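Q: what sequence does this backbone want?
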């Protein structure tokens, strides 16, 4: 199986970040919406598949299965092509560090993609999870699939929005995006779809099974639980979780992936002639997709 070496990945990642920095705002918004929806689809599948798996019987297998099926989200993002904020937290800083993009363009991308991710996740949460009846409510028929899904979603959301402290969310979010950005990073090394999927599988399974916090995934889990009628979760709890998850995700992606691999492979390399990622800057190689 052909693959790129780490130094080749670093070059391609910086070029991909530069390409994203040059995207128009409407394209960023649509691409962000799709990525938010894809992550929400994965969250909904993870809830449905793991519903009814009693931890007293299954132990850690419940969270492991949640992680296994949640990999669908990043597979859709990377193979179909969409912009996910957490992946861009590594790619755009690399473009800035290699002078292929400016901080202004990084801020624009992160802001617009964040809005798109939120809209996509909320759309799936409200219409395709709650209003569709896939996730039941407190009055769902006991023993049914909808009731089991409600109980599972409520457990996930309560743990993240109520039981975790702000410090815990922040630290878990660092670990989460370190792994997510490694999945994006390794997927760039693959020359075929099978290799990309395999590169994605283990880091994403790990972050979910470990209970780490992904801000876009939480844009699905927490509002869906709120709309489904999970008691004890307010919008203040949800917003607080998003803020600390986003900050932790940024640290994980920027510090432990972008900055680390820039230092290892790109520091001191010749800068492109156009420092802002303009028309003369390198474009991402064909087939890399949007991450």
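A:
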């Amino acid at each position: 199986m052909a693959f790129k070496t780490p130094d080749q990945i670093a070059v391609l990642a910086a070029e991909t970040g530069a390409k994203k920095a040059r995207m128009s705002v409407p394209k960023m918004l649509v691409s962000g919406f799709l990525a938010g929806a894809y992550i929400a689809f994965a969250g909904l599948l993870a809830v449905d598949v793991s519903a009814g798996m009693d931890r007293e019987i299954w132990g850690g297998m419940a969270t492991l299965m949640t992680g296994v099926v949640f990999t669908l989200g990043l597979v859709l993002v990377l193979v179909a092509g969409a912009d996910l904020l957490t992946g861009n937290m590594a790619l755009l800083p690399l473009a800035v560090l290699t002078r292929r993009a400016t901080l202004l363009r990084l801020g624009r991308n992160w802001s617009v993609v964040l809005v798109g991710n939120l809209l996509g996740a909320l759309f799936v949460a409200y219409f395709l999870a709650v209003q569709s009846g896939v996730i039941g409510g407190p009055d769902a028929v006991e023993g049914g699939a909808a009731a089991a899904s409600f109980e599972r979603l409520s457990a996930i959301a309560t743990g993240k929005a109520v039981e975790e402290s702000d410090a815990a969310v922040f630290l878990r979010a660092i670990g989460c995006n370190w792994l997510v950005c490694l999945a994006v990073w390794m997927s760039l090394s693959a020359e075929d779809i099978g290799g990309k999927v395999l590169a994605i599988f283990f880091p994403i399974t790990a972050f979910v099974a470990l209970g780490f916090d992904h801000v876009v995934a939480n844009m699905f889990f927490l509002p869906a639980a709120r709309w489904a009628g999970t008691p004890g979760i307010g919008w203040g709890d949800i917003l607080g979780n998003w803020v600390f998850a986003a900050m932790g995700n940024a640290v994980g992606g920027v510090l432990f992936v972008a900055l680390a691999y820039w230092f290892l492979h790109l520091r001191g390399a010749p800068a492109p002639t156009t420092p802002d990622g303009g028309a003369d800057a390198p474009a991402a190689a064909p087939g890399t997709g949007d991450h």
